[in-house]
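Bug #2210: token dump truncated for SPAG7 protein?
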Amino acid sequence: TPEQAARMKKLQEQEKRQKVEFRKRMEQEVSQFIQATGEPRRRFQPMNKIERSILHDVAEVAGLTSFSFGDDEDSRYVMVFKKEFAPSDEELDAYRRGEEWDPARAEERRRLRELAAQQEEAELERGPTPPGPPNDYKDKYRHLIGSDAAKAAARTMEANKAYGCVPVANKRDTRSIEEAMNEIRAKKRLRQAGEG
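Reproduced locally. Full output below:
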């Protein structure tokens, strides 16, 4: 009927107007965000699919990166990032899990993982330890440095053992300790021969 058609047309025009208004509002918000110097990212309120697509478009036009997060349709929201603060995969994963992103904690986790990998690699390189008398640092040097100093030295040895950091260059060194030592000795002999 003509009335229904007229009502439909009116609704469509109303929707169109709302979209235009929404887009203007998002353009204002996005330009405020761009001018806010201390704000690398901004999280918007949950929106419906159409509103999210409008916001993604506004962000793209403004040269920003944007992502949607949230599991169900009612709670999905958009986050907009300035290009120089584009999120890492780790950061995106945190938002996908519904967690806050904490760069300091993530850096700490990354460092611990790296350390664990280095220690594992060092243990693999060392291979199984041959059975033998336990090497007690304190007893070994007690006669040279006295027992108090030996204890202190042993403590610093223990503390340093925990770091287990191996420079990347050393990791690529496939020589055995024996080969490396022979090479060092050979270089030393050459130097001494040159000086003599």
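Output looks complete on our side. The longest helix spans residues 2-35. Marking as cannot-reproduce; reopen if the truncation happens again.
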